Amino acid sequence: MTSSNNDQPLIFERSRSGRVGASLPVADVPARSLDQIIPQELLRTAAADLPEVSEGETVRHYTALSQRNYSVDTGFYPLGSCTMKYNPKVNEKIAQLPGFAKIHPLQPDESVQGALAIMHEMQTYLAEIAGMDACTLQPVAGAHGELTGIKLIRAFHESRGEKRTQVIIPDSAHGTNPATVSMNGMEVVEIPSAADGGVDLEALRKAAGPKTAAFMLTNPNTLGLFDPQIQEIAAIVHAAGGLLYYDGANANAILGITRPGDMGFDVVHFNLHKTFSTPHGGGGPGSGPVGVKKPLIPFLPVPIVQCKDDVYSLSYDHPLSIGKVHSFYGNFAIYLRAYAYIRTMGPDGLKQVSKDAVLAANYVLKELAADYKVPFNRYCMHECVFDGLREAAPGIRTLDVAKRILDYGCHPPTIYFPLIIHEALMVEPTETESKETIDRFIAMMRKIAKEAVEQPELLTSAPHNTVVKRLDEVLAARKPDLRWKKNV
Ligand SMILES: *Cc1c(COP(=O)(O)O)cnc(C)c1O
Questions:
Q1: 261 with 165, same domain?
Q2: What are phi and psi of 323, to 5 degrees?
Q3: Which of 170, 268, 305, 481 has the fewest CB within 10 Å, making it most exposed?
Q4: Residue from 353, 349, 371, 351 nearest 361 by CA
């Protein structure tokens, strides 16, 4: 990439021949030449083409780049389905304690009793929050939890000599759900949503049968709507011999209020980087623990953390286990942060999280309903979905609204997901934002709705205030220009 549309030169463009980042007095011990230290055949013949810059310039360069990052520590981040809540710094402090940060996964069990005790407690907490009987901490993402969960379901059916190859998924599902099913070599059976956004019971009844391994459901679903028919749904799936899988990405709506296990689900994953406030974004690391009901316990990944007479150990002796799904025990440093979060919040605190998250989303839904189309006339849970602007110059789309939001220095909500809402704009304010922040967001969204009618070109040509203006998204995806070449 060149710096043509960019006021920030690349570090290579700052380079001046002979400039150095450090100056030290001449050494008073005899110098050894490089080939006395490194074998001749391993030495470069020409010097590496590295930028030559001073320390001060280097610091300014990278500090300026870091200030271009948008994060939950710099601003409101209402990215629906992702639960971009504030991550309390006490979690980081705890994860940095040397007793946690400096241990090694190959240490003998007796030398890491504290870490094992935390893993054991964390499994217990998550199983309790989910209403499940046991839990594995090994998967390292929500999608990875899904993969693990569907493997468990498959192993369960196979152990009973049943060949069940289909997984039913509603058309509102997150893309990782069908991807998980395919990755497991099973068949996706998609069913349409009902007019109120919930599961179409008739369609489910038709789809469920002797080939059904599971029904995967997010509840509240990706529209932010809770499905009150859940017990009937569970009865239909179980009567067909299938199991019910809970995609827990939206668990921020239900903590301490209801539990997937009580709704009839058999397998659950949580996204700790969403619901339990571990750092989120940039592709990882995450954590996607999976909870199961009793009949699925024998199939859980090894090792299992167990406790006998106050001594913790890792147990590999589980002949029906699906095996390992990740090296060692998953991302210890991540679920450790989530453990700190659960302990600092306590049961009442977690319940308050969900109450406040749901309140905040309903406030946004109500305040923006005059300007943005509301596809379902219902209370929402922790996030709300709009179907584009109510009124605008012809041709103004949700994409234009999102680009205009960037001009106001805010991260846009999720757009064009879920797929069944054509102009979807999905706002998840989370419980950690103040009323003032949410009010500023609402005022900004109203102002943009007004601009869409009065000065539509402000939206269609947005963003105006960002370093990179509007990209040709097709070209950017097909022919990404990511490489800098010297003197071109
Ligand atoms: C985020 C999300 C996932 C996938 O979780 P990752 O941790 O990103 O792999 C699955 N389902 C839903 C509904 C989600 O929002």
A1: yes
A2: 95, -155
A3: 481
A4: 353
* 111 DSSP assignment: G
Q: Is 442 a residue whose pLDDT tops 80?
A: yes
pTM recorded for the entire structure:
0.92
**Band of pLDDT at residue 35, cut at 50, 70 and 90:** confident
Q: Is 161 left (phi over 0), alpha (psi -120 to 50) or beta?
A: left
Q: How many CA atoms lie within 13 A of 384 on its CB side?
A: 26
pLDDT surpasses 50 at 4:
no
Residue nearest to atom 5 of ligand 1 (CA): 142
Closest protein CA for atom 7 of ligand 1: 142
Q: What is the pLDDT of residues 332-381, one digit of tens each?
A: 999 999 999 999 999 999 999 999 999 999 999 999 999 999 999 999 99
Q: Ligand 1, from 79, 150, 174: best to mutate by most atoms within 8 Å of Cβ?
A: 174
Query: Per residue in 86-100, pLDDT tens?
Result: 999 999 999 999 999
Closest ligand 1 atom to residue 273 Cα is: 7
Nearest CA to ligand 1 atom 14: 249
| Ligand 1 binding pocket, CB closer than 6 Å | 81, 141-143, 174, 176, 218, 222, 247, 249, 271, 286, 288
Q: Which atom of ligand 1 is nearest to the CA of 222?
A: 13
Residue 451, domain CATH: 3.90.1150.10
Count: domains in the chain: 2
Expressed as residue numbers, the domain containing 449 is: 351-478
State whether 288 and 432 are in the same domain. no
- CA angle in degrees (0–180, nearest 5) for 467-472-473: 100
Q: Closest residue (by CA) to atom 6 of ligand 1?
A: 142
Q: Please answer whether residues 318 and 300 qualify as being in contact, where contact means their C-beta atoms are separated by less than 8 angstroms.
A: yes
What spacing in Å lies between the alpha carbon of 176 and ligand 1's midpoint? 7
278-300: pLDDT as tens digits: 998 766 689 999 999 999 999 99
Q: Which of 286, 314, 345 is the last residue of a domain?
A: 345
Which atom, in ligand 1's list, is nearest to the CA of 286? 7
